[in-house]
């Protein structure tokens, strides 16, 4: 098979940050019309490499060639003008503007100095048609789903005659159907000869869409591989640099649980989740499976008192309990790690230490500060136990990587020694190593008697950890299945698809 | 500590300018058992602004703003003077005035945290209505009182030091204790940094916001007593006029971000002193009265630019060698020196 000349070639890229060698002699080449996955754990250098490519950071060494010519960009705008467009994980658009305005913001078609609205709408519609999307371009962007917003961002990126399209974790907040839609668009772009650099933590997606991949580890190049020639296990071991012990079901034998801790009876909230009944026993891990928006998060929020229930009741330890606020739930020793750690978890301006002791401080009120030596002791213990890196408690939490931020939120709740820990997508957007650590931790905690409500979009993960799995579909709890040998991801998927009627 | 470097440098520069124009500027002398001197005057006349700014700092740290403090200053002085002119009980007058101020602050907090009105609008209501309330109390006149014990608050001396300065020290000490020794500070910063996350961490965000507005109004009330006591009269129309803007400026110069989160009490005190020194400087340098506001605005703009790391980066990159670690090292040396 003849390999076409690469449209982009980066060779020997090195980048030094104060105290960190972020990139060291990294090569990357992108062929026209391919989807190329950039793989590596958090902190492997993926983001830095992308930032060097798009001119956010200047490279300390190495060269970048675009279509055979050496280039160096002073900023993302220059890179875009040269044909390298980037779509970031968080949609960088203005939700209050229309779809067409978002696509052409900053470069609106003009006629005699005024914006030519008609032409703008027509061109926007044309662009979206190219992606086979049926969208009203004059409607505000906020009226469309996150996935469609992402497509609009892509449409905006490829309008400027893109030769290289960088997608940095575009799928992390999309559900399965939306991912399919995105992949459809990616395949179309591929056919047009655009080289796509794709970053994702979802291995299945990588195998579905990518042709080749480049693996980084600790700022160094591990190698470039054809996706179909590299097995998943090899990929993971190359990413984390060691043979990963096979992740089997973390619970040995099925145990029986007879001491109910939290019982929800016909608990529901209008417009969020239909009344459901669910019992969580001491020491039990209950998984919740279901598609995005199926009501998983809503159940978690009701059990934590983050939202008010409109019907039903909850009993904790057999006694009726009013969980009307997070404080009330915390008084019953229920803890909740939200799926959106940026919005609902972290205080970015505070240090790791302050973030970790925050919930403990909140339970004590402002008049009784947690003594500093007790803070240091607690924080030091959890920074070590959860391997939070960098292990400096006085670091601002905003400067930590996603996985470490997740661990900080986790530590905040573990300090309170909850009886029920609700984890909503605790492993989303974090690397394989940290993921395994968090899974192992969940297993350990439940062995120690803590009940865990575990929510994840990854069915394997739910199966591996849970003793029992609740299945959600269309905001309804449709099944409550014991996790025995007969329960497989296929059966879970069937249940989700059929709504538990089969 | 690095955060306070620039405000300190600006203050030092302003003082140096004064020293150049008035060689005796730094001299402090004892007259009739009281301390006198330009530096003492800056502290004494700056005391109300420092108080208002301290309250404003906590409000801004929660991500809010309080435009009503100027009106509260007027109300406090007006009510106290009215009571004293009626029956002369200074203590009851002070308690009554401060009590009303706390109530007004609770009202602000209720509008912001309870009803959910944006802080700038919620406090704008009291800014306008409060000025009217003050005029109502004074009946649109200037109430003059003749009470030596009331005069102490703003014009008196204790142990040779102006009483107002001591009052500021006490309030500053109490605030620092509540926020830094107790846990109020970190909870305020948490609410200002991310209100929803704070609620989900079990913090009573609403209670904290209400407390902070009440505290700001209390500080403004004390400042109002100080101002009216100093001149032994209450002027509902002009007392505390525009002081909210100076206070916001002082907070910002002190390095607290208007978007909430981290705050610095020391920075705010420096900021307020910079503004007061600037006012003094403009007079002592002999700027014509009709241009004083313009000069003040220019200096403030320059200070804000100097504070911005981005701006400094640009200027220094052009002026000095482009190596980035070096400026940081230089700053450290200056701090320890």
UniProtKB/TrEMBL annotation, chain B:
Compartment list: Cell membrane
UniProt keyword annotation of Translocase present: no
A GO molecular-function descriptor: transmembrane transporter activity
GO cellular component, one term: plasma membrane
Pfam families in the cross-refs: BPD_transp_2
Domain of life: Bacteria
Cross-referenced PANTHER family: ABC TRANSPORTER PERMEASE PROTEIN YPHD-RELATED-RELATED, GALACTOFURANOSE TRANSPORTER PERMEASE PROTEIN YTFT
The protein, known as: ABC transporter permease
Species of provenance: Nonomuraea montanisoli
């Amino acid at each position: 098979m003849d390999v076409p000349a690469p449209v982009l070639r980066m060779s020997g890229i090195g980048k030094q940050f104060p105290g960190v060698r972020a990139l060291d002699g990294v090569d990357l080449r992108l062929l026209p019309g391919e989807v190329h996955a950039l793989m590596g754990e958090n902190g492997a250098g993926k983001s830095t490499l992308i930032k060097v490519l798009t001119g956010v950071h200047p490279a300390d060494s190495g060269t970048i060639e675009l279509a055979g010519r050496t280039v160096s960009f002073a900023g993302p705008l220059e890179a875009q003008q040269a044909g390298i467009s980037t779509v970031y994980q968080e949609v960088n658009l203005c939700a209050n503007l229309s779809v067409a305005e978002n696509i052409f913001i900053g470069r609106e078609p003009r006629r005699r100095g005024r914006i030519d609205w008609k032409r703008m709408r027509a061109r926007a519609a044309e662009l979206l048609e190219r992606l086979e999307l049926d969208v009203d371009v004059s409607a505000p962007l906020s009226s469309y789903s996150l996935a469609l917003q992402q497509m609009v961002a892509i449409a905006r990126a490829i309008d400027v005659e893109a030769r290289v399209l960088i997608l940095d974790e575009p799928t992390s907040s999309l559900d399965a159907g939306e991912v399919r839609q995105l992949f459809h668009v990616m395949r179309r772009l591929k056919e047009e000869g655009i080289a796509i650099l794709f970053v994702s933590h979802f291995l299945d997606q990588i195998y579905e869409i990518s042709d080749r991949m480049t693996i980084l580890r600790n700022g160094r190049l591990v190698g470039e591989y054809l996706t179909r020639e590299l097995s998943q296990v090899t990929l993971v071991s190359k990413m984390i640099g060691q043979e990963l012990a096979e992740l089997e079901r973390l619970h040995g034998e099925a145990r029986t649980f007879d001491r109910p801790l939290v019982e929800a009876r016909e608990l529901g909230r209008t417009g969020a989740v239909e009344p459901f009944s669910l019992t969580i026993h001491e020491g039990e891990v209950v998984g919740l499976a279901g598609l995005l928006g199926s009501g998983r998060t809503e159940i978690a929020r009701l059990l934590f008192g983050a939202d008010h229930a409109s019907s039903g009741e909850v009993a904790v330890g057999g006694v009726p309990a009013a969980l009307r606020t997070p404080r009330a739930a915390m008084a019953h020793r229920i803890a909740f790690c939200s799926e959106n750690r940026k919005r609902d978890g972290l205080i970015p301006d505070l240090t790791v230490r302050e973030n970790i002791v925050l919930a403990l401080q909140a339970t004590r009120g402002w008049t009784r500060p947690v003594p500093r030596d007790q803070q240091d002791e607690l924080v030091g213990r959890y920074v070590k136990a959860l391997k939070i890196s960098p292990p400096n408690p006085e670091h601002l939490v905003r400067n930590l990587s996603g996985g470490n931020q997740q661990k900080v939120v986790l530590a905040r709740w573990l300090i309170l020694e909850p009886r029920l820990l609700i984890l909503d997508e605790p492993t989303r957007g974090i690397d394989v190593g940290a993921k395994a650590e968090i899974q192992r931790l969940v297993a350990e905690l439940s062995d120690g008697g803590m009940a865990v409500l575990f929510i994840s979009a990854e069915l394997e993960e739910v199966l591996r950890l849970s003793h029992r799995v609740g299945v959600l579909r269309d905001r309804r709890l449709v099944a409550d299945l014991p996790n025995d040998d007969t329960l497989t991801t296929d059966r879970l998927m069937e249940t989700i698809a059929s709504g538990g009627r089969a | 500590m690095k955060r306070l470097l620039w405000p300190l440098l600006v203050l030092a520069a302003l003082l140096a300018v004064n020293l150049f124009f008035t060689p005796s500027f730094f001299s402090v002398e004892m007259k009739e058992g009281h301390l006198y001197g330009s530096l003492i005057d800056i502290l004494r006349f700056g005391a109300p602004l420092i108080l208002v700014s301290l309250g404003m700092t906590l409000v801004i740290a929660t991500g809010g703003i309080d435009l009503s403090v100027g009106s509260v200053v007027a109300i406090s002085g007006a009510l106290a003077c009215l009571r004293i002119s009626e029956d002369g009980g200074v203590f009851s007058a002070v308690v009554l005035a401060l009590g009303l101020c706390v109530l007004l602050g609770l009202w602000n907090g209720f509008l912001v945290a309870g009803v959910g009105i944006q802080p700038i609008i919620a406090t704008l209501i009291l800014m306008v209505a409060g000025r009217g309330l003050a005029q109502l109390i004074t009946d649109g006149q200037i109430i003059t009182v003749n009470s030596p014990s009331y005069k102490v608050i703003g014009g008196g001396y204790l142990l040779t030091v102006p009483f107002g300065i001591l009052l500021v020290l006490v309030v500053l000490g109490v605030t620092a204790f509540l926020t830094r020794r107790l846990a109020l500070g970190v909870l305020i910063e948490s609410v200002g940094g991310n209100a929803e996350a704070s609620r989900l961490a079990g913090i009573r965000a609403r209670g904290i916001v209400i407390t902070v507005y009440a505290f700001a109004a209390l500080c403004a009330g004390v400042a109002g007593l100080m101002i009216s006591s100093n001149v032994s009269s209450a002027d509902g129309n002009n007392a505390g006029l525009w002081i909210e803007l100076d206070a916001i400026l002082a907070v910002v110069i002190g390095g607290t971000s208007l978007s909430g989160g981290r705050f610095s009490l020391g920075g705010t005190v420096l900021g307020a002193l910079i503004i007061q020194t600037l006012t003094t400087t403009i007079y002592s340098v002999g700027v014509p009265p009709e241009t004083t506001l313009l000069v003040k605005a220019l200096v403030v703009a320059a200070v804000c630019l100097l504070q911005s790391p981005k701006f400094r980066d640009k200027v220094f990159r052009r002026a000095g060698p482009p190596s980035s670690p070096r400026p940081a090292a230089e700053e450290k040396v200056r701090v320890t020196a």
